[in-house]
Amino acid sequence: MNHNFLSKNRLKKLKLKSFGKNIKISPNVTIIGSENIQMGDNVRIDDYTIISAKEGFLKLHSNIHIGGQGYLGCGGGIEIKSDVNIAQGVKIYSKINDYLSAKNKNKIIKGSIKIERNVILGSNAVIIGKTIIKEGTTVGALSLVKQNLNSWSVYAGCPVKFIRKRKK
Q: In this predicted structure, what is the pLDDT of residue 45?
């Protein structure tokens, strides 16, 4: 893992919509549509993550870690509240193709994704469509999330299934 991060000067050159204090972005992160990205304080984004916000928006609150090799497709909008840990390889798609439409093979579905406070997303989890992951939820590694998840719960699987409640 790279421990070098963009300087404040290089952060300013990104022309993010806004950013707070103590932002740590690896120089190996790809950012598209920086003008649609807001970041609070204490945000860290590791190597080889791709953020595509040319359409839609990305709003990162504070105290967020996004592990390396992730993807945030922001076409329908993504909001991540404070105190969230996103492990390596997580993919979040707020704009997806509608593979069920036989007539229109180019039909796109956009839906905002909201990840509330104190959420943990395990390695290589995939989140698609209009989804709310409620406060305190944990999603296991290699899981597929395509529906809203209840607060303070543990989910895992492809697609995810409720495993048990999580302690606050």
A: 98
